């Protein structure tokens, strides 16, 4: 299967683009957790745990919000998986399409939050529509990142990257980047970018975006995603490559 997005034509571009998307995922979760009633819209694992706490009747966690986020995330990932495959099979630029879809959903969430709550946060007790739209966008992101298939860079979680990075350092504790093969350097760079990206996104979201309020913060994130999509559309198709692990 060919990737018709030249913006992803090299390993360096892949790592750079996926790092930016990872930072944005951290920002999304900072905004969602801190301004939308303590729910994760990108980190699906967190919502699964919140839902388990709620069903067990402990921790004063509502059932509806994590359940809404999980359901919307699954729906977004499923629909995006089908649509992106359809585009890829026809040689279309599926990567920018995935990003545009994600951005449009984030814009809708931001506008809905602004219309209903102004520039403040979304009250924890109501308005699951904003949660659903953001989680839907992150489900689309999950399928887009899965199709790009950059090892160690799923953009939405860092646990595996942390374990891989630690194991690599322990196997070669004295090896600096210059003493490694190109493949080893690339792998370590990917893991580091994933961990650092999630962390940086959380800091960015907390310090810069959360003070803006839910709606405006989501619009800023959507604008960043659209810039990446535009880069994929503006660059002329050149040498196309097969996506590792693609069908």
TrEMBL record:
Residue spans crossing the bilayer: 15-34, 39-57, 69-87, 94-115, 130-150, 191-210, 216-235
Pfam family, one: DUF1275
InterPro entries reported for this sequence: DUF1275
Keywords on record: Membrane, Transmembrane, Transmembrane helix
Superkingdom of origin: Bacteria
Coiled coil: none
The protein's name in its UniProt record: Uncharacterized membrane protein YoaK (UPF0700 family)
Organism: Streptomyces collinus
